[in-house]
């Protein structure tokens, strides 16, 4: 019978440890900060474990550099976010709100990898094997090399992995797994962290890729996936409302690729489906109205054309309301102050509502100019110049600053049938003569940009 490991309760703030749990830490006085952890044996008890075969330090210039082998997940969007595919021995954490589509995506990817000849082990702690089969039938995710087991005991899971030797195994979800040598309940900080460390050991030792699914709660509990972010190799976050049509997958940490890439999926009756041409999809329902502007944004290496909508209306309430969807509301307040101070636009006394169509979140400064033009267009109730895209960063003094990858943005706009582009003056000079079939305008300040976007003076 395996010897039970010793545990202690350690304060996460000051490091005070005790054998019993207490609500208040005697060391620092913090409440609910004591967490159960495994006690590391002293050096004399673990002497000789791994010391004989310890790897010696090497000069960094003498270390051999080899391209890490990757295999495709079968999803172009997921491969893009991962940096080109899955690396054997890596550990990927996929997190998001319940119902956003994490299990559906991983089950479909498991089937695609299994059809390609790689063995996949899908471990579920939330559903039975029969429920997984029913969902697989709906998602058309049936494959001979896709193995499914319903298990929550981590020791049993490691035994399955050792026996089956899959190329990829998936844990759904990490909050349901537990180690028998830890007395705390599944989902606690100690269970989640120790289970993740054991899974990482299995992945690195056997060279098996691991996908771990985790849930994010509105309360941001410490037992959530944020505890694991420093352990895993890659962290992928799902964005999008549960009832929304589109989902966005972002990498917030990636040891084997860029964190600027973005994957787009559409929820259908067969689960999440890749969206290869997102710009065309986002603009398919666009209506030519005042307050509607197209901004060419760049996510990693992918250019996206997104519609920014603004509604500015007089209000009898004081103070006026500022509401933003998929844009930081503080950013809207800053741009409104620039419009009122530098352009003398009396917009401060009106309600302002800003929305990004499709649910894509705009974080880059290149969208500043488009937001300003959209709000000014709605305030003046005047249509902007037709078939025009707008991008540029707006400073507090009203100047329009250059943006990166301007040529890529304009090329994407031309591909989708736009005939004009409003850019910062520096980017305008760089692109002169490169797009003869497009009308490109340059603006030094926000006032010139508004006159160009809406030919009549406001």
UniProtKB/TrEMBL annotation:
Q: Where is this region: Lon-protease-like?
A: 351-458
Amino acids binding ATP: 96-103
Q: Which keywords fit this entry according to its UniProt record? A: ATP-binding, DNA damage, DNA repair, DNA-binding, Hydrolase, Metal-binding, Nucleotide-binding, Stress response, Zinc, Zinc-finger
Q: Which residues form the RecA family profile domain?
A: 67-216
One GO cellular-component annotation of the UniProt record comes to: cytosol
Q: Can the keyword ATP-binding be found in this entry's annotation?
A: yes
Q: Which CDD domains does the annotation name?
A: RadA_SMS_N
Give the motif span (RadA KNRFG motif).
Answer: 253-257
- Spell out the Gene3D superfamilies in the cross-references: 3.30.230.10, P-loop containing nucleotide triphosphate hydrolases
One of the entry's Gene Ontology molecular-function terms is: ATP-dependent peptidase activity
| GO BP | proteolysis; recombinational repair
Alphabetized HAMAP family for the sequence: RadA_bact
Which family does the record assign? Belongs to the RecA family. RadA subfamily.
What does the UniProt entry state concerning the protein's domains? Answer: The middle region has homology to RecA with ATPase motifs including the RadA KNRFG motif, while the C-terminus is homologous to Lon protease.
Q: What does this protein do?
A: DNA-dependent ATPase involved in processing of recombination intermediates, plays a role in repairing DNA breaks. Stimulates the branch migration of RecA-mediated strand transfer reactions, allowing the 3' invading strand to extend heteroduplex DNA faster. Binds ssDNA in the presence of ADP but not other nucleotides, has ATPase activity that is stimulated by ssDNA and various branched DNA structures, but inhibited by SSB. Does not have RecA's homology-searching function. Plays a role in repairing double-strand DNA breaks, probably involving stabilizing or processing branched DNA or blocked replication forks.
| Designated name of the protein | DNA repair protein RadA
Native species: Selenomonas timonae
């Amino acid at each position: 019978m395996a010897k039970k490991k010793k545990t202690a309760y350690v304060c996460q703030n000051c490091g005070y440890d005790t054998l019993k749990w207490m609500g208040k830490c005697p060391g620092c006085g913090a409440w609910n900060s004591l967490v159960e952890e495994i006690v590391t044996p002293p050096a004399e008890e673990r002497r000789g474990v791994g010391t004989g075969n310890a790897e010696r330090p090497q000069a960094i210039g003498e270390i051999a550099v080899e391209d890490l082998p990757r295999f495709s997940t079968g999803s172009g969007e997921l491969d893009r976010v991962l940096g080109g595919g899955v690396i054997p021995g890596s550990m990927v954490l996929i997190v998001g709100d319940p119902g956003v589509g994490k299990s559906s995506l991983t089950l479909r990817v498991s089937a695609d990898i299994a059809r390609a000849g790689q063995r996949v082990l899908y471990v579920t702690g939330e559903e039975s094997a029969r429920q997984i089969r029913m969902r697989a039938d709906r998602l058309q995710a049936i494959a001979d090399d896709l193995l499914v087991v319903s298990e929550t005991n981590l020791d049993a899971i490691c035994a399955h992995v050792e026996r089956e030797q899959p190329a990829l195994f998936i844990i759904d979800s990490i909050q349901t797994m537990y180690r028998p040598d830890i007395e705390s309940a599944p989902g606690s900080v100690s269970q989640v962290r120790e289970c993740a460390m054991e899974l990482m050991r299995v992945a690195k030792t056997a060279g098996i890729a691991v996908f771990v699914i985790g849930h994010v709660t509105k309360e941001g509990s410490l037992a959530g996936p944020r505890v694991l972010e420093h352990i895993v190799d890659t962290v992928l976050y799902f964005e999008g409302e549960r009832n929304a049509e589109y989902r966005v997958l972002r990498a917030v940490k990636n040891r084997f690729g860029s964190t600027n890439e973005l994957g787009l999926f559409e929820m259908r009756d067969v689960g999440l489906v890749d969206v290869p041409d997102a710009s065309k999809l986002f603009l398919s329902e666009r209506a030519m109205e005042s307050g509607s502007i197209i901004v060419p944004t760049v996510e990693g290496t992918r250019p996206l054309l997104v519609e920014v909508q603004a509604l500015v209306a007089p209000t009898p309430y004081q103070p006026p309301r500022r509401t933003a969807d998929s844009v930081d509301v503080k950013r809207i307040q800053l741009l409104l102050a620039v419009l009122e101070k530098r352009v003398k636009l009396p917009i401060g006394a009106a309600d302002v509502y800003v929305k990004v169509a499709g649910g894509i979140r705009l974080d880059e400064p290149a969208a500043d100019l488009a937001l300003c033009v959209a709000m000014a267009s709605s305030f003046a109730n005047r249509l902007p110049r037709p078939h025009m895209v707008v991008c540029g960063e707006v400073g507090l003094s009203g100047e329009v600053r250059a943006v990166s990858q301007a040529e890529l943005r304009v090329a994407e706009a031309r591909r989708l049938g736009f005939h004009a582009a409003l850019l910062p003056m520096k980017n305008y000079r760089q692109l002169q003569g490169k797009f003869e079939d497009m009308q490109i305008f340059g603006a030094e300040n926000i006032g010139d940009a508004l006159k160009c976007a809406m030919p009549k003076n406001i």
